Amino acid sequence: MAPNKLAIASVSLSQYPGHILDHKIRAASQAGIAGIEIVYSDLLTYSKTQNISIQAAAQKIHTLCLETNLQVLSLAPFENYEGATTPLKERLALGQHWLEIARLLHAPYLQIPSIYTTDCSRDEKTIISDLQRLSDLASSAKPVVSIAYEPLSWGTNCSTWEGALSIVQRVERANFGLCLDTFHEGTKLWGDNASPSGMQMDAEVKLRDSLRRFVRDCPRDKIFYVQLSDAERFETPYSLAHPWALPGEAKEFTWSKHARPFPLEVEFGAYLPVVDIARAWIVDVGFEGWISMETFDRRMVNGQVTPEMAAKRAVESWRKVQVEIESKSRL
């Protein structure tokens, strides 16, 4: 079995408002999960239920994680930062707040998804400069926080691991690297929720070539952590008439919000080649760092799926992925 430690995003343990962050943390720990990505909105909800500041909430959550032997992996997601039209001074002030919370949580990473708004700068120098300023802010106090940059499949300026790696290399900061997610690789190059087949044209070739280039070109030390999730095949192909569709929203974003089960949960329609991606990203490059489950399953919204149930699903999913990786490696 792979030596990687398993983490999970707090939102992937439940999206029901009545399931509070401390409950999720205990459930993850009891299931044998080693780490957790704290989603800011979950922490904010917890602070309100406790009637305390978000800073005090972060300190309490850190203490709870120590008591339950759970490591905070990251604070996420600091969205739509690089190249945004709002003044950089305001964005850096917000970034400073997020970094303060990350340090109180003792989170080694602040996760930043690639910007996905349309009203943003396309200028490469601006994008790189913005990310350098944030990285420098993150390293200006102790403990240093590292920036985990995640290419979204619907990102405006960056939507592939290759684009993200190029940005990482140009930002050129020790505390700036990659957060890689199988959902984004799978939906950018292989899956298509608007196609009756569920697949893009030349899907297998595009994905295979991408993974080969990844193994050849991606430096292992710039992979900060890897997120795993699958995607559900749409029974009725996506269109603007689909009940989940929103005007102006990318179809991959819609897909992400509603239909991202844990890897290999075929009973929920999971069908992406997650094992192929995970094998390249983890085994073939010798990555031994954190693996985190980041799923968005609409079945978790109404409260019928408890954090305990979700945590068990996550552990079983990771077990299945490891078994499949080993099985394919022997072929």
Write structural notes for this entry:
It is a single chain. The radius of gyration is 19 Å and the shape is globular. Strand 3, helix 4 and strand 4 form a beta-alpha-beta unit. It is of the alpha/beta class and 331 residues long. It is built from eleven helices and ten strands. It starts with 5 loop residues before the first strand and ends with a helix.
Number of domains: 1
Structural class: alpha/beta
Q: For the record, what CATH class applies?
A: Alpha Beta
Sheet with most strands: strand arrangement: 1-2-3-4-5-6-7-9
Cα distance spanning the termini: 16 Å
List how many beta strands DSSP finds: 10
The H-level CATH homologous superfamily, spelled out, is: Divalent-metal-dependent TIM barrel enzymes
Helix and strand string, N-terminal first? EHEHHEHEHEHEHHEHEHEEH
**Could you say which overall geometry the principal axes of the C-alpha atoms support?**
globular
What's the architecture in CATH terms? Alpha-Beta Barrel
Tell me the helix content: 40-55%
Main β-sheet, in a few words?
8 strands, parallel, barrel
Q: Return the CATH topology.
A: TIM Barrel
State the low-pLDDT regions, or none: none
Range of strand content: 5-15%
Number of discrete helical segments: 11
Organism: Penicillium vulpinum
InterPro entries: IolE/XylAMocC-like, Xyl_isomerase-like_sf, Xyl_isomerase-like_TIM-brl
Pfam family, one: AP_endonuc_2
Protein name: Xylose isomerase-like TIM barrel domain-containing protein
